[in-house]
Amino acid sequence: MKSDIDRLMAEHDLDAIFVVGAANHNPAMVYFTGLAHLTDAYVLKKQGEDPVVFHFPMERDEAARTGLETKSLNEYDFEELITEAQGDRVIAAGLRLKRIFNEFGVQGRVSVYGFGDIGEFFGLFSRVRDLLPKVEFVHESPIRSVLKLARMTKDDSEIDRIREMGKITVDVMSNVADFLTTHRAKDGVLVDRQDEVLTIGEVKRRINLWLAMKGAENPEGTIFAIGADAGVPHSVGLDHQPVELEKTIIFDLFPCEPQGGYFYDCTRTWCLGHASDEILQTYQDVFDVYHEVYASIEAGKPCASFQDLTCELFQARNHPTIKQNRQIEEGYVHTLAHGVGLDVHEAPWFRSEASNTDMLLPGSVITVEPGLYYPSRGLGVRLEDTVWVRPDGTLETLVEYPMDLVLEVPSV
Amino acid sequence: MKSDIDRLMAEHDLDAIFVVGAANHNPAMVYFTGLAHLTDAYVLKKQGEDPVVFHFPMERDEAARTGLETKSLNEYDFEELITEAQGDRVIAAGLRLKRIFNEFGVQGRVSVYGFGDIGEFFGLFSRVRDLLPKVEFVHESPIRSVLKLARMTKDDSEIDRIREMGKITVDVMSNVADFLTTHRAKDGVLVDRQDEVLTIGEVKRRINLWLAMKGAENPEGTIFAIGADAGVPHSVGLDHQPVELEKTIIFDLFPCEPQGGYFYDCTRTWCLGHASDEILQTYQDVFDVYHEVYASIEAGKPCASFQDLTCELFQARNHPTIKQNRQIEEGYVHTLAHGVGLDVHEAPWFRSEASNTDMLLPGSVITVEPGLYYPSRGLGVRLEDTVWVRPDGTLETLVEYPMDLVLEVPSV
Question: Smallest Cβ distance to B221: which of A88, A145, A259?
Fold first, then answer.
């Protein structure tokens, strides 16, 4: 968590953290600034010192509201720097960086963070190296950088915010279940009172509406995938398609706080009207594995071990798994879990790979999401909750929601 | 526009374009793929050849829907590459890139694009250089790269999409005006029928709701800033504050297609109940300058010339401008305009700087947004429309909306 940053910087021999980009939809920046209308800013944090935010003058009030020490970029006259850089804006930005680093005594090992224009910043940091001979830009592991390690565990205020998003998420799930079951079954699809066919697009439009009403944003969209589409984990469902009966519907909802704050992640699998024996059996296998794995998860163990266990449990039920064949596209084809926070997918990671050394730490927020995928049979099942590994190491599903498979709908 | 890419690549001596990141909220990627649920992908486009999208296997159907040639990243076994890279994931990603580049015969000058994790990709592209001796990673100007130059002009399908967002934007503006004027004036603020004070937060909640209903997303939030806050161009307004009467309200709305497609950008300044002579005069000056500048804008001239003209027009009305003093915080303090497209702020740029060589080209979509800011007097005024420079060089405001200043509200 945030209070670990200085310790982690010391352990990783990092003298400074330098964050670039906007203060929205930018986890590293938002981690320091909170959500703010800063369209383009820097945060500089030296080891053992408080972070400073550098902002454009038009955004001075927004910068002040971050509660951080602020510095206007107006103090470094960019037009003058462009002249000095003979018209080259990248070099001018580099010269500005040089002035900032000199003024704040930044030298040694510096790591760069932020979500932004890759080409622009690759150019800037590549070319600025010559201007800053006393700075070494460190290339941290993208999955085990100091900030990602800090973000891997959450403090109470972060848990509260994730839980709030969870309440909104399951409220909207409930709204969707209600909405679907006010429809009727006709010719294999759902229709409304005027016999109009309900489409996936209309369901998604409502989802965005309900999320907005409750104060959430849905920047990455929703998975509402039916039948064969549900058999491919990241197929999202096509807007023009009707909501079909008696097929599995994977409904995966992962909204965040407006402008890109904390996420929640939850999946239910539904079947409208009636479920075949094949669907019931596949669902039961996922349901059982979910509960067996959940019961086995405890802090202090390697994350990959829970993926291994999940594969073993599915294999014991005669399902092929990714552990047997990494190229697999039927059976259990993905990993059990991922961290959830300012990114919907973040550390810790659960891949069963020798290179994955992530341990499950108290304070983590993770998904638990086993699934089975048989696109050739037109079905997929996934069950997912977002779970807090409490400081005492026990698990708590942040917000409960029923796991019923079949939603009853009347026939016309 | 898109059909210019190969010509621009030839002019800029670029052998290949390499785009990284997700296919949402990532302009360079979305420009090629359209909006798609690709959480992490590559697009490779060699000069004179069609682009290829590299995707994860779980997202194969989403990749296929882009209409581009597709290639599964499963074909490059990452676990094997990690072993080869002795556990270093960045080097493993570099080795994958090497295989892809070799397989597709990529060499020479390559430019990197995309919106993503700066630290991760700075590390990747810095370290992959040694693995790809025949590739030169080109550092293009961040504001005049091949893709940004291509995106600077829009084809008809892009204009249609921006105009659709414009219709939603002004519809919501209209909803907000209606909503405000159903309230009543009491003790200097708006109250509802139960005498409950209307807050900025409630107005913004409604805005997000109406945008979601109409099928738009609001990833960067809304500026709804009153009085002294309106005097600072990018102050967004505080949620807990009441909607005050007789002060200028800058309402700047800039939503986009869901998951990060095309934007629209529109600002109106309102005053509830009654406007003082000072507000009326300031508003009139902005209104007049808006129309004078608008009438002067034509294709083929330097963009900076329109900023110069705007400054002259404001100075003639005795307002200080950024042309007289770059550090100014009162008067006319920003630039007249910017391009609008997959980014809310994009080329062409209108800064009055020697280094700004952008010409206004037919096919551009730009804002026109003069404003006056006097935070010390508790007021700010801005008027902004999104305007298409048509192929014949004439201007067309994409969607009209009235410029009334005063919104009448009954008193309690």
Answer: A259
Of A61, A79, A125, the CB nearest to B232: A61
CB < 8 Å to A218, chain B: 217, 258
Helix, strand, coil % (nearest 5) of chain B? Answer: 35, 25, 40
Q: Where are the alpha helices (DSSP H) in A248-390?
A: 277-296, 303-316
Which DSSP helix (H) or strand (E) runs through A266? strand A266-272
**pLDDT(B412) > 90:** no
Using an 8 Å CB-CB cutoff, list chain A residues near B117.
Answer: 114-115, 142
Chain B residue with CA closest to A122: the answer is B122
Q: Read out DSSP for B343-376?
A: SSSEEEE---STT---B--TT-EEEE--EEEEGG
Percent of chain B with pLDDT over 90: 89
Instruction: Report pLDDT digits (tens) over A119-137.
Output: 999 999 998 988 999 999 9
- Of A259, A210, A337, nearest to A62 by C-alpha is A259
Contacts of B166 (CB under 8 A, 6+ apart): B264, B266, B386, B398, B399
Cα gap A347→A154, rounded to integer Å? 12
Q: Does the beta-carbon distance from B232 to A260 stay under 8 Å?
A: no
Over residues A336-361, the mean pLDDT reads: 94
* Phi, psi for residue B306 in degrees, rounded to 5: -75, -30
Residue listed under structure tokens 């086993």 = A370
What pLDDT sits at residue A311? 98
Closest CA to B269 of B241, B290, B255: B290
The string of pLDDT tens digits covering residues B221-277 is 999 999 999 999 888 999 999 999 999 999 999 999 999 999 999 999 999 999 999
Question: In terms of pTM, does the model score above 0.90?
Answer: yes
pLDDT exceeds 90 at position B354:
no
pLDDT of residue B263: 98
The helix (H) or strand (E) run that includes residue B19 is: strand B16-21
B139 contacts A219? CB cut-off 8 A: no
Q: Which of B15, B9, B21 shows the shortest CA–CA distance to A118?
A: B21
In three-state secondary structure terms, A87 is coil
Residue in B with minimal Cα distance to A357:
B87
CA distance, residue B78 to nearest chain A CA (Å): 10
Q: What is the mean pLDDT of chain B?
A: 95
Letter for the amino acid at A243? V
Query: Residue B327 and residue A57: Cβ atoms within 8 Å?
Result: yes
Q: Helical H runs in A104-155?
A: 118-128, 146-151
Give A115's contacts in chain B (Cβ within 8 Å).
115-118
pLDDT higher than 90, residue A294: yes
Confidence of residue B87 (pLDDT cuts 50, 70, 90): confident
Are B127 and A140 a contacting pair, CB within 8 Å? no
List the single residue in A88, A112, A258 with the smallest CB-CB distance to B122. A112
- Distance linking the first and last C-alpha atoms of chain B: 54
- Give the closest residue to B385 by CA, choosing from B404, B372, B407, B366: B366
Contact state of A118 with B123 under an 8 Å Cβ cutoff: no
**CA pair distance A168, A174, nearest whole angstrom:** 10
d(CA B184, CA B24): 42
Contact A365, A322 (CB under 8 A): no
Confidence band for A338, pLDDT divided at 50, 70 and 90:
very high
Q: Give the tokens for residue B76.
A: 């490059």
Test B111 with A120 for CB contact under 8 angstroms. Answer: no
Which chain A residue's Cα is nearest to B345? A39
Confidence of residue B143 (pLDDT cuts 50, 70, 90): confident
E-state strands within A139-222: 184-186, 189-191
Parallel, antiparallel or unpaired: strands A395-397 and A379-382: unpaired
Q: Please name the member of B112, B220, B326 whose beta carbon is closest to the beta carbon of A79.
A: B326
